[in-house]
């Protein structure tokens, strides 16, 4: 099967970089367009006004945004160097929700993402973004594991 548009959610983990490398290989084989996505998580239980008055929180989000932009620019360059049509996006909100939203927004027909492989209590406490995306996505999801 040939994919036209691959969505690649990335964070600062080695597994997400491995997923980006796999997506790059797939894009080269199928001539796919790629969207690289970074999600800056926002706590849904805290109002926006709180972030405006809490300097430490504001600083945290500014650093997270800056880190996401740098990560995306670095990865984007590797795709450009291989002649792949690539764009970047930053989504603010819940990770799984953001991935699914952007997949629809860019009309992706494949999501390639890493899974940190958490198990047991860590998975229960932190949750699994990859599992949530896999369960809710209406398009194929390729999970790259460590």
UniProtKB/TrEMBL annotation:
UspA domain: residues covered: 3-145
One CC-aspect GO term: cytoplasm
SUPFAM superfamilies referenced in this protein's UniProt entry, alphabetically: Adenine nucleotide alpha hydrolases-like
Family: Belongs to the universal stress protein A family.
Organism, scientific name: Acinetobacter populi
Pfam families documented for this protein: Usp (PF00582)
PANTHER family linked: STRESS RESPONSE PROTEIN NHAX (PTHR46268), UNIVERSAL STRESS PROTEIN UP12 (PTHR46268:SF6)
Keywords, comma-separated and alphabetical: Cytoplasm
Protein name: Universal stress protein
InterPro entries assigned: Rossmann-like_a/b/a_fold, Universal_stress_UspA, UspA
Keyword ATP-binding: no
Locations listed in the record: Cytoplasm
